Amino acid sequence: MLFGSSDSGTQLSSLRRCHLPRTGWRSADGPSSWQSCRRVCRSHPGCPTLTRLVISDRRIGWYNALLPPSLHLDYPDATLAVVVLSTPDMFERAFLPFLENRLFQRLSDPVDQCVKHYITCAVSQAFPSQRVDVRYDYELLPNRKPKFLAQTAAHVSGAAFYYQQSDVKDQPWGDKKMFGVCVHPRLGGWFAIRALLVFEDLTMGSEMAQQFPKDCVPSREERIRLLEAFNFFWQDWSYRDIVPPVQTYSQKQKDYFSTKPAERFKLLKTWGFLSTEEDQPDQTLDTQNQTNGHG
Q1: How far apart are CA 70 and CA 116, in angstroms?
Q2: Burial letters for 180-198: b for 16+ Cβ neighbours within 10 Å, e otherwise?
Q3: How many CA atoms lie less than 13 Å away from 49 in the CB half-sphere?
Q4: Per the similarity annotation, which family is this (predicted)?
Q5: Looking at residues 19-29, what average pLDDT do you find?
Q6: What's the distance, CA 214 to chain centroid?
Q7: How far is CA 103 from CA 33, 47, 87, 111, in A?
Q8: CA gap 249, 295 in Å, rounded
Q9: Does the model's pTM come out above 0.85?
Q10: Which of 86, 106, 212, 213 is the most buried (most CB within 10 A)?
């Protein structure tokens, strides 16, 4: 599910279609549920414009099958889930207008608040009769484990290929731990995984086959280059260009995400935001957000 668009044309004045293919889906609420899921929904008053939502869906069972029981999502295997990605133009088309319109209540992490605002707006208006469990990439359970593994979810949904150390034959790193990274076939690394939506009352029919992500970095040499660029040189953005992207971050967005999270409020102030006392950041920001704030 793409939050934003690869189309850099005119912004839309409403949240347009939410497409759910009818064939192969089941709902506890019957046909009326389908009308709710497929209808056109309008943006919340004051929300900046959003572009079309494109769904990358999956069965919970496909996700759980890849993980140990301690990380399973506690839903029946056939339950529908949707992964939400942000595309490069989200920054100019959603985040900056979010700040300009002062839609935040109390500023902690600005991007997290922005994403939560728009997803809450879209879900409440597009699916008012559905029970939707929304889990954000920055949220943790009481045991400090993430509420969902974002890159695994993106891979299972078919949205992006999750390249891991185990995907490289004859690894050159010995015992060194190399963290994996997702690559989108059209955006490369110029995107972020933002949320997981679990539709508790919608299930996928058994005839629905899993759509696997495109392997856009097939060679051993390129996979080594990707993982080394991500693990050792992520600050220079080069890993994101492992495939030719159709769109990249603007220089302004690069400046924002290159700035340390604790310093971003000062940067926003130089851009003309956060000009009053009530706009000042919450000083109890989660440590994880402070250290892992790369977009």
Answers
A1: 26
A2: bbbbbbbbbbbbbbbbbbb
A3: 13
A4: Belongs to the MMACHC family.
A5: 35
A6: 18
A7: 30, 8, 21, 12
A8: 10
A9: no
A10: 86
